[in-house]
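User: When convenient, might I ask for sequence and structure tokens for a protein?

AI:
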Amino acid sequence: MRQSEINTVKSSCAICGATEATVAGELTFALPASYRLDGNYAVLACNCCGMVISKSSSEQKDYDRFYAGTSYSPAYKTTLPDENEHQYLNETAAIISAHVKKADGIIADIGTGISHLPLYLKQAGMDNVVASDLSMDCINILKSEMKVNTLLGDLATVLEHHGNINFLVMSHIMEHFADLGSIISLIRNKLQPGSRIFVEVPATDEIETVCPEKPLSYLYYTHLNHFDEIHLNSLMTVCGCNRVAGGRRIREEKGIKIPAVWAVFERESKMASEAHASDFRLAVKIAGWFKNSSLDPSSELYELAKSMQSVYVWGMGIHANQMLGMSPLKDCNIKGLLDGNVSAIGSVIGKFTVESSEKLKQLDKDECVVITAPTQKNKMVSFLRESIGFRGRIVTI
């Protein structure tokens, strides 16, 4: 489905129930075959309320399986929060502590991953914290390294196993659901009136404040719902929740700045009106990114592709998936994909099998290394130049 062929498609909106949406643009990601996810997404804006989603042929069950298989490198598992993340987690714990109503209820953190937030909640005096995740690897880390109570599963599992939930924490999780309708149904039908929910999501409407040159790079393949404050509030109103407090902030994690909108909501005893706001400013903004911005603003990758120089791409993370899928990097004379993470080595992306970064030691000065790990690029450049004496061209993106 190309945008030139069709602008309006059938798509059910979780917020307002409308059945038609306009195509704002298309995203293509070069994903490992083992993910078993469709890497082709249409970015759709609801024609009624303006809610923006990214939609592929993959379903919620496919993403659940993907997240269940999530694992982390040994180095990542043992990384402690830096100063910025420490401040962010302290602030998050303080917000939640200020809005917890009952001391004896359970505080359930949904989709924890290996976040240190449960520890910060406990340090702030909240002892009945349960961390949940679909990944057994994450659960094992939470148990062994952080010593917190855990539950393997999703929101439905948590609500089924714990009837006395006082507070739900859904921090940077709402953007990941392919089936927002099921989340709405769970909160409406299973969460007890009076319970509260802390929700934080990326503020897509503020991406340009941290990445004005290529905002599309923040539309990850795992981010399926794109929020601003208006549409987050509308979603939670449909869930039967009333906003208690909220705000905006910047989350800086491992060098990446993420604009975020957060709010605390309370589940109403009487179902509120499902009236929703219609606002198309975010939809118009995203459509403008597709028309007017580029993943290669300096044209360096375009020139590299024209040169036909041999290229090795180093760092198979989420940024590489997008750059290999829809930037001029895909047109370069790529000879290999490299990574230092054991779990990435051997994965198949397109026609390439990811090789160990040890191969870098074999390259000569006529070859080019494209570094696609923004948070690690300085260390990687230093390794190439100083540790192994690489004298060829280095491109960082």
Observations:
- The longest helix spans residues 83-99.
- Residues 1-5 have pLDDT under 50 and may be disordered.
- The domain at 300-396 is CATH 3.40.50.720 (Rossmann fold).
- The chain has two domains: 74-269, 300-396.
